[in-house]
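Lab notebook, bench 4. The sequencing result for the construct came back, and we need a structural model before the next group meeting so we can plan mutations. Quick request posted to the team channel:

Model the 3D structure of this chain.
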Amino acid sequence: MANQAAKIIDQFEKGELELKGCYKHLNNFERHKLQQLWSKLIDRFDVPVNDLVGANNSLIKIETFSADDKQVSQKDIPKGVIYNGCKFGETVADKVGEPVVPVKYENICENDTLGAYIWQTFREDVPDTLVLRFLRARKWDVDKALDMILAAIKWRFANNIDEIIYYGESANDASLMFKGTSFIHGVDKLKHPIVWAPSAKHFQKDQSFSQVKRYLICIMEAVRQMLHYPHERVCLIMDLTNHSNSNMDWPFTKMFLKLLEAYYPECLAVAIINNGPWFFSGVFKMIKPLIDPTVAQKIQFAKNADGLLKFIDQDQLLKSRGGKNDYEYKYILPDPKENLLMANKELKQEAISKRKEIIKELIQITKEWVAAGQKVASYRTEPPLSGITHAAGASKDSGSSTTIAASESASSNQTKKEEAIRTELELHKKRDECQERLAKASLELDSFTRARNIYHRLGCFGLHRI
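Done. Here's the predicted structure in token form:
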């Protein structure tokens, strides 16, 4: 783990992105593992999400967090104002005073099968970028990656993640939004978006578990919008400045670690724990067993600006943390007019139809690409045409003829193998182009399926991410 920590620091010092095993950076082994996983996914396209089985034919299980997601009793609800005029349970829509989203949510999936819902999971991502996260997280073990991605898809389906995205911040706890217990600002030295998490602003008693869960999903989905090739990860700063025991939230911590490891894997470039209080080492010992080893390897510690400046340039580091960036988080309430496009059913249907046609095209190309990869793999497993022996007493001419025939056969097989490899690579290129068109079409559909958030209001998103 110490070697991995040193490797991360070295990457930041040299300015080198870690792209091995990422989209557009696959070797032959990784590409064929990707094909195998897609083949297994396509085989399950007709199966309802709730009936999905994994590699060992066992029903896929998901984390529900039900033990922590309990109704807050009346006697435990804080009285009066919590923060910035917000009372317990007040949402952003309550503070706006009128509807923020003009029309009610409608599921745009044709049915509840994997083949329909998987595209909702991908949303605006190039599909392979997401699938590859699960392969990398499971060290290219296809069966383990299959179980993991199916669990993530089932979790999203069970928790109505698309509906959460649809209403966005409008249904979030208003005090959480105004506090800025998590926010995105700036980039690190490798151009990863920075997610700031100032823990001193968070108090477990100020909101229900269901609201903090919803808030966390919204921020993670907002981060997803900013992750695109070649910057597919974030820099997370767990800022413990002025942290006290009253800021500890054990259920939230467990949930965050589970989401990061199981349902949003390989999204983390580095996690920096900044300015921890004297007692935090004891707290970290309690938390560490819950942290996935892959995530744990990416944790760094900083005590001051010098520690943060190893990863972040001064112009990107907040002034409040020793840098030169003037930004201070301030929540901007939604304008009820900003989501009016969501009510345009005609344009929405056009966007759905456009995406649907590209999905059909991508499925067909993917099947051809998988078959081409299998053909290439079959040549690799054939025994070499060498070491041919002849029966005793066979004539010299007969032996010579056999050798010539074997040589011609080997040459023919080599030609076929080269042709198969060329076909596979051509399909791979064609498929990448199709995936990128799908990502753009999905981004166009996003205007009808996602309420605008603070990062739209701040102008953080460009028109295209490819």
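The mean pLDDT is 91.
Will bring this to the meeting.
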